[in-house]
Amino acid sequence: MNENETRRTVIRLRDIRKIYHIGDQELAALDGITTDIHEGEFAALMGPSGSGKSTLMNILGCLDRPTSGSYELDGREVAHLSDDELAKTRNVKIGFVFQNFNLLSRISALENVALPLVYAGVGRHERLARAQKVLEDVGLGDRADHQPNELSGGQRQRVAIARALVNNPSIIMADEPTGNLDTKSTKEIMRIFEAMHEEGRTIILVTHEPEIAACASRQLLVRDGKITRDEGKGVVMDVV
Prior knowledge:
Blueprint: E1 9-22, E2 25-38, E3 42-46, H1 53-60, E4 68-73, E5 76-77, H2 83-93, E6 94-98, H3 109-119, H4 124-137, H5 153-165, E7 171-175, H6 183-198, E8 202-206, H7 210-213, E9 218-223, E10 226-232
Parallel strand pairs: 3-8, 3-9, 6-7, 7-8
Antiparallel strand pairs: 1-2, 1-4, 4-5, 9-10
Helix pairs in contact: 3-4, 3-5, 4-5, 5-6
């Protein structure tokens, strides 16, 4: 039996299309995406610029809605929820990591990590304790009082990962998380993602770097708004 057949499906996409209207022309950024992501998978989305991978990530992350098609997240249809319903779903289910870290520059690493808990209504004492714990989990417990400009790029990305983890989401979505990092920091960050995967988290990572994608347990190549290849771990795919 295929391993995925024994795992719960957390994301189910059926014929997802995203159409943009430019003047009197239609541009299909996504042109019929159908796939499943299973619990505990580490999936990498690859593709050249303009392929549709960022549009797909925005829909997966409940940051945007498709023009048509079905998107079930944990068994619930979310493709056509209202903005407020999408925001609630996003805040509960998904942790985000971005290429540019998206940290607030005037507050400490600890306060940056605790921010999602502010929006969730968690009291100050508990949210700071939880933020400290996840900072320790990513190896930055001793940098909690530092502001982002006092940290290296790799350290800032670890703060961003801690922020994504603080709500204990079931899914982590990362958009080019190593894009601004040197080789040493990239390896450190990928080790953290691999450790999260080993803990059973579902991870979806967008990258244009074949070597990064090859670390994932599954690689999806997006071209012209379609998934054109679906490979396992270790395959180095050319996206050009």
